[in-house]
Fold this sequence. Notes:
Blueprint lengths: L6 H9 L7 E3 L2 E3 L6 E6 L4 E7 L3 H17 L7 H17 L1 H12 L3 H22 L6 E2 L6 E9 L2 E5 L5 H14 L3 E5 L6 H12 L7 E3 L4 H10 L5 E5 L2 H13 L4 E5 L5 E4 L6 H13 L11 E5 L3 H12 L20 H16 L3 E4 L17 E4 L6 H4 L6 E7 L2 H9 L3 E2 L1 E5 L3 H10 L4 E4 L14 E2 L2 E2 L12 E9 L3
Parallel strand pairs: 7-8, 7-10, 8-9, 10-11, 12-13, 12-18, 13-16, 15-16, 18-19
Antiparallel strand pairs: 1-2, 3-4, 5-6, 6-22, 11-21, 14-15, 17-20
Helix pairs in contact: 2-8, 3-5, 3-7, 4-5, 5-6, 10-11
Amino acid sequence: xxxxxxxxxxxxxxxxxxxxxxxxxxxxxxxxxxxxxxxxxxxxxxxxxxxxxxxxxxxxxxxxxxxxxxxxxxxxxxxxxxxxxxxxxxxxxxxxxxxxxxxxxxxxxxxxxxxxxxxxxxxxxxxxxxxxxxxxxxxxxxxxxxxxxxxxxxxxxxxxxxxxxxxxxxxxxxxxxxxxxxxxxxxxxxxxxxxxxxxxxxxxxxxxxxxxxxxxxxxxxxxxxxxxxxxxxxxxxxxxxxxxxxxxxxxxxxxxxxxxxxxxxxxxxxxxxxxxxxxxxxxxxxxxxxxxxxxxxxxxxxxxxxxxxxxxxxxxxxxxxxxxxxxxxxxxxxxxxxxxxxxxxxxxxxxxxxxxxxxxxxxxxxxxxxxxxxxxxxxxxxxxxxxxxxxxxxxxxxxxxxxxxxxxxxxxxxxxxxxxxxxxxxxxxxxxxxxxxxxxxxxxxxxxxxxxxxxxxxxxxxxxxxxxxxxxxxxxxxxxxxxxxxxxxxxxxxxxxxxxx
Length: 501
């Protein structure tokens, strides 16, 4: 997005956007078979943006049939990797060339600041698809070390039809983490975007076709989890489901797979990230600033948000004061304003859920140090919550154990690194963690002991597409990003050729 676009420019462009609001099945935009549609609401205002096709079992059946037909025809699944690469790179280029439109859609649909949509979400989405396109013709099959009487080929083949059920907090970026490797490997895909934020997924379906991805290979079925999502999870002709969302819903997909065709399931189910700041941290101000951004970025609606700040007693007050100082600069504002650093909560249900957790924290005896209330802005009717900080939190409290998915920080004091490890691991989740220390031996000890899929040392939420992302325990299994993601969407086939006399 051009840096020259002002608040007024962005509002003007937003007012003239055309919303693609139908399902995309077999290369065509279609209404739901039932004719039903649901309201797509702008969380900044509480007003309806458009009505979106409400897909259910019949629409899922149509999408799976189209995806399977496309896979079996082989126009994509058997296309040379170098050719898939070219089309995926063109797809990424088209996302880049429509970046302003897509960033506006993301902001209007989900409530995140336009500065984040335009500088983070859309560029990284295009970059992800481009990276997998570039990678796929660099992936080699194998030959096993057999004796002279045989040749054993180990081939990596596409699974077939993959359903990607994606969340509302990073609508296009989380979708791209699935779309990139699924398509690069030669599969057909059916994307089920979250009902709170379906617009970018629907829009890019047309761009995929324009890039040369054959009809039926890329499908989008907007709708609700209990109907469209469940239908995908139970479908006998879906080969895999990849899901990002809550642990509660992730468990449903495990059940659906077991009760249907034992389809492959991969899950990324959120977390309760411990951000551990030890007294010998190399820069306490930097650690505190990262802690503030780590919980207030994207309104706290981040699976690996640093929602538990675990600090050694001797430095707790200094760190917490700096966190609140930074937090005061991150007050909610109009998401379309380029100066806004914190936007709206995705919908009223989520806003009320967050406020309920804040009340629970107060009742359990945590000390509210900052925030805690809904914010009224010029966009009356929008869903805004101010940055919220609790001190004197016991790790057994509800706010320390359950994923809030909002701008609410729980501060927990500990006496040393060993207690920090114990508290950090005392959760059902294990998605991410961080530790701040200048002692390399202590850093390795803490990072090795934390049960998390990603551990940051002296930083927070760093990484790129080349590094895998995923969790331990009830944060799920399977990895997004990196070449490891291809393991979820391919099968290994052994071909044993006897060459002896």
